[in-house]
Amino acid sequence: MSIRNPRLPLLPGYGANPLIGKKSFGVRPVFTSVDKVNMLVDKPEGVNRVPSLYCRKQMPELPTWLMYDKNILHFQAYFQQSLHEMLSASHILRKVDIYFFLEDGTIKVMEPRTNNSGLSQGTLISRQRIRLPFSYDSYYDVLDLNIGREVTFFGKVFKIINCDNFTRVFLNRLGINVPDPLSWPDAVEKAPDNRRPPKHRPFRQFLDFDRQVLRFHGYWDDRSSEFGFIHLLEIHYFLADDTIEIKEELPPNSGIEAGPMFLKRMRLPRKIPSHVEMTGGAPQPSYSPADLTIGAVLNVFGRKVVLTNCDPFTKEYYRVTYGFDSFNELPVPKDESSECVSTNVNDRQLPPWNGYGSYDDSAENCRTVEPKAPHRDFIKFLHKDRVGFDSHCLRFAARLIDDNPVNTFRYFIIKYFLCDDTIGIFELGERNSGFKGGKFFRRDKMYLPDVNFFVPKEPPAYTDKDMWVGNELVINKHRFRLVAADDYALRYMELHSEEYPMANVPLILDKIRRELASQENKYKNFVAKYMDAVLPENKDLMSVKCFKQALKEIMCEKMTEHEFITLIRRFRGDPGKEKSPRREMIRSLVFSELTRGLWDDRERLREGLLHADAPGLGSLPVSRVRQLLRAHRLPINTDLLDCMLQVLEKDNKCNILYEDLMSFLDFQTRPVFNLTEDDYQKVVRHAPPLKDTECKLWAEAESQIQEGYVNWSAFLCQLNLDHLVKEQS
Fold this sequence. Notes:
- By secondary structure, the protein is an alpha+beta fold.
- It has five domains: 72-190, PH-domain like, CATH 2.30.29.170; 202-338, Roll (PH-domain like), CATH 2.30.29; 378-495, Roll (PH-domain like), CATH 2.30.29; 504-574 and 713-728; 580-707, no CATH class.
- It is built from 21 helices and 25 strands.
- α13 (580-596) packs across α16 (638-647).
């Protein structure tokens, strides 16, 4: 109730504010949360404020901007646009999308964009409320939009034919029946006159086949003319306007200078037009897609172009349009006159090598006038280069075979690099031996002995197939015998046993199997002779020394030392166990380095190992343990670290048990090496460099083949020759 005096004018100073002094306004502001949205409500507590689309007008509702936020009804419709400039049609169909925003009742009309349509498509009607026709206060609502209805927006009549699933469900919940979708009418309606439409409609063809090109390969044989040759061509047929262009494919370094186009894009007539036809006669028929196929001959202004092949899109087009299923490529005739052009430079006969520089360097300088560096096998380098801790380097211990007895005690390390097939030789010098040690031969490709080097072709060189224990290599007139290999080399050759026969267990067993089956009762006597050689406490185990002797008796010189090592590694009866003195000696060297580096951080190392072992298996891969040891800054070099990782206990998957590592690094159980006092002072207290002690490690690796045990029962089971005993008995 207003207290303003109606006789006074409504001007400042002639009235009073009725709210002055009022304390209760009848609305208690309450902040609450509805659907995770904080808002101010004026409804009393205890009243259900959640809206429902099924029962309206029965409970208080939320504001529309909150209830229908991001809820949009989507309809598909079309309208017809008149065509005054075309005689063949009266109007054209244009498809649109109608969006109705439920939050404020606005409408937006958009037309999907079509490439090369020639129409300004996109947003036709921006988002706004649209009035009903012949009305000034009524607007389009949800009830006015449905499938089958026609709506008029600013003078344009839109026919609704479909809607999306959300729109259908929403209208059904409101109790509105939504009919089934309607089909699209024809895009262009013919004019209601009796005029005969033209046969060719370029605009319709352009819209249907734009950017669709048939691609053929062919050739033109020009060998009948002087200095002629076979021209390799690429034919493009444009379906949008029935034009053809032809490009010539020239091989690299052909020495031929030609134009960019063999035939520019144009309609190619079936025959050469005469002078009268070119000056105003009837147009000549041109080639169509029905005339193009593999084996067809095109008359390109007197030049016979033969089609030999086509691309997958062209094959699919002819398969769908004409029903063709067979597309057999035609061979291109050989051009003998152009053979000299495509001669490979690498196949030329080079002069003999003169001995200066490497062979690859001299050969590369003979092929080109400008000196260039020799090219390496880059693909092999990518696959065989060092990747993390996988070095792709095979290391072997070797001894020098010489008449001088002093040289027989010298130790050498031969490294074979798989990335470029080079060999590097290093000597391990001992103290007071008279030999300094270090690099003996630099890394290079080593050629076989007794070959002629001064020849045009490169002489044969040593490969990775020649690297196996027991083999003898003659390098620069020095004869080396490979006596041992490190674990990485043996493991790498066993993993790639298809490339290395000396590490292929099935091939070795097959060789033994053939030898035992060559004579009668040979296998039976072999098994009976060594039946008592097994251990008394374990009938399945046999010493390595006895096992090697048994194989040498039947194989004689038919087995190499590397094959013996492969079998012993395969049938180890005590896998994972190392010789105790070797482990204790390495442990002594490790503790000497740790004491020298003042390292004692076992607790932090244990935390790192437990953190890396998330599943709690108690073991970690060798690479991961190596990474953790390097991260915790153990003051030992990489060679000693590798030796330490080799002697640690491992599980069935060759993962290191890190509890054994922690006991290995325990200062409270510091090892006391079983040597004389002088040797103990040299090995433990003074910690000599690793290159001096590595000779002892290689000596142990060389003698390790004579120690340990072999599973004799598993070996006989793998031979699988029990049927010979039954047949011979």
